[in-house]
Amino acid sequence: MSTLPLAVRDSTTMLRRNLLHARRYPSLTLNLLLTPIMMLLLFVYIFGDVMSAGIGGGNADRSDYIAYIVPGILMMTIGSTVIGAAVSVSTDMAEGVIARFRTMAIHRGSVIIGHVVGSVLQVLASLLLVAAVALAIGFRSTDATALEWLAAFALLALFALALTWIAVGMGLASPNAEAASNMAMPLILLPLISSAFIPADTMPGWFQPIAQYQPFTPAIETLRGLLLGTEIGNNGWIAITWCIALSALGYLWSTSLFNRDPK
């Protein structure tokens, strides 16, 4: 069998394995998914009026804040869900599963590809669930065209792929699942210091560059532009550049760690 069909066959097998693990042990994904849902409900129903007054120049309107916060929560969902990939990969390494795969006559890269594709599919399912909750509490995007919705979905999928590659590298670099979970915590914390909850230009002057020049803020602003019709500016190209750079970095890091000889 030639290399490409072998790679596709073995990657599909590894993907099926990871999806079965996710179905049999859904507690990790559920726990990670609850974080963005709880943040959404907390900020909308507890802080919604106050936050909307600050953004709207004194006019408290919770529906406006729902529209503002949902794109940030969707990005936060990606950051929290991909932690499961880091934990899953680290668990396979610690239990010796990957070491056994290395001795088998399978395509070498299929193990990582199975984890990456499986994680991206789980992220997309999580995004659909969070979006359903957002719609249930009043989020609407009436001005977005079908093309803009498709572009928004593509951006979310591309961002999920980029962060998954980073998470897989973290999992391979960690000695155990607990360390992998701790190493991946910045993927949850970065959205908190972005424009997800308040505009970056309302933050202290010394802190604004931190919020503006990180991966989540341009992606969130691009998503807002696509779904709500706000100004995108250069954020679209910056977001895509971040996705490509993180994907390349994660891929090179992950493959380097996976291919090195075990001690």
TrEMBL record:
Organism of derivation:
Streptomyces phaeoluteigriseus
Q: What are the ABC transmembrane type-2 domain coordinates in residue numbering?
A: 27-261
Name-wise, this protein is Transport permease protein
A GO term (biological process) for this protein? Answer: response to antibiotic
Could you give one GO CC term from the UniProt record? ATP-binding cassette (ABC) transporter complex
| UniProt KW keywords | Antibiotic resistance, Cell membrane, Membrane, Transmembrane, Transmembrane helix, Transport
What residues form the membrane-spanning segments? Answer: 25-46, 66-90, 111-137, 149-168, 180-198, 236-254
Q: Where in the cell is it found?
A: Cell membrane; Membrane
* One GO molecular-function entry: ABC-type transporter activity
